[in-house]
Fold:
Amino acid sequence: MSSLSLAPRRLRWAVADTLVLTGRALDHWARQPAQVMVGLLFPVLLVLMFGYLFGGAMSVPGGGDYREFLLPGMFAMTMVFGVEASYAAVATDTARGVTDRFRSLPMARSAVVTGRAAADLVNSAAGLVVMLACGAAVGWRWHHGAAAAAAAVGLLLLLRLALIWVGIHLALVLRRPESVMVLQILVWPVGFTSNAFVAPESMPGWLAALAQWNPLSATVAACRELFGNPGWGGDSFAAQHAVILAVAWPLLLTAVFLPLSVRRYRRLSR
Structure:
């Protein structure tokens, strides 16, 4: 049988195995509702803290409601912080030998990482729904219609998908759950060195350039634009083409880290 005739069968096999492993991850979460609830409520706590504790001291560029300015940044920050959960799940499976058992089964090699990515994306979508509801409860609104709002949500999930692959790859490289602290050291500066809370123009020149071209900044600026919420503005290329960059950055990260993750998984025993 030729390789061309085998390709559809291999694809169906890979999709079926991916669905099985996605279901495995979702079943684990169903058995640990407390852990899931903590993960969903932590971003809500951040919204309440920033919106009510610090909101009175913050000024919105050009005027407007601070919470409408804040929430798109918080949505994107939640997508970034989720990379730690992806890392911890894959690293734990690797450290406990679960990944090795998967490798001994007659299953598609890519299914382990794609199944994890799919499950994490479902979990992130649920978390984003909670965040949207929380935002609506504290006064946040979108103003450019349902289609633009759906596009903004799509950009947020696209960023999350790209960062899932980053987390999976790092987990397969480091293989130690306790090394999540290393990832936190990387994630927090990326999150706060952006336009989510502070205008890049207020930063030193070199740091402002990093903030403007930060993938998170592109998603935040694009979401503010699509939701019709106030933003920092600016006349730089990154500020004027935020939607394009909010698509380009995640696609680039996915194109790099998805194949690296699959390749690293296949070479775990070497």
Summary: The chain has a mean pLDDT of 82. Residues 88 and 112 are 15 Å apart (CA to CA).
